[in-house]
Amino acid sequence: MNLNLPKVSIITPSFNQGQFIEATIQSVLNQTYPNIEYIVVDGGSTDQTMSVVNYYKSQIDIVIHEKDKGQSDAINKGFKLATGELVGWLNSDDVLYPDCVAEIVKLYQEKPDGSIYYIPLQNGINATGKVHNLATRKIPDKKYLLNEDFSIIQPSSFYTRKHVIEVGFLDAKIHYCMDLDLWLRLLNLAPIYYSAVGVPLSGFRNWELSKTTTGADKFLKEIKKTLLKHGASIYSRNIRRIQIELFKVKIKRFLRYNHAGKSVLS
């Protein structure tokens, strides 16, 4: 290993994701970049998660298995143990493609003054791993993120650890858009950069039991609250988009439970 290469720390928070976590772990272990510190923080899973984690334990730098206060708390535990110049997290149902970290480090070495580095393309994958869509998000600065497009390519996003420490880690009270809140705080300190690579280097799993699917209305309301807290205009494209999506959620719920339509739309 070339010790002159900056170390990159990846944290995987997990709770009862036994059906997906092996693919997640393998995607980290199969990175072409050699200097990676891998930390798995499990919140007390009762399914097969820990059997999978223990199988790979010799290849994982740190494993924590204890109750936590949720995803943000678990990630913060990993952040506080991490020793890499760059840190990021990979949820236990998502995957990185082999060259992801290498591309991030290349970008970091070209532009070392930033706080956020990410790959702007991402595959959406379903429960079986089949690709069902391609997302592209190019965020140039805080103003754009705040008012124009709040969508984030999270799995392939990495942060300078010194800046994560400076902003005080994730807000553990935020359960859905902790990444958005972190980005907005980091962008008060230093720029954001995205790679020019023309292919997706991560897969975000969107399936029927994922947190953002089952809690769509809570997810959208938390995003709105976070954006307004950081200064978004109530007339911004972001806020208008959220209002439309919240209305769609209510309509879908009404159609599903039309016998209770009055209370659903209230």
TrEMBL record:
Short name of one Pfam family: Glycos_transf_2
Highest taxon, organism lineage: Bacteria
Keyword Transferase: yes
Keyword DNA-binding attributed: no
InterPro entries: Glyco_trans_2-like, Nucleotide-diphossugar_trans
Protein name per Swiss-Prot or TrEMBL: Glycosyltransferase involved in cell wall bisynthesis
Keywords for the protein's UniProt record, in alphabetical order: Transferase
Gene3D superfamilies: Spore Coat Polysaccharide Biosynthesis Protein SpsA, Chain A (3.90.550.10)
Annotated ranges, domain Glycosyltransferase 2-like: 9-161
Gene Ontology molecular function: any one: hexosyltransferase activity
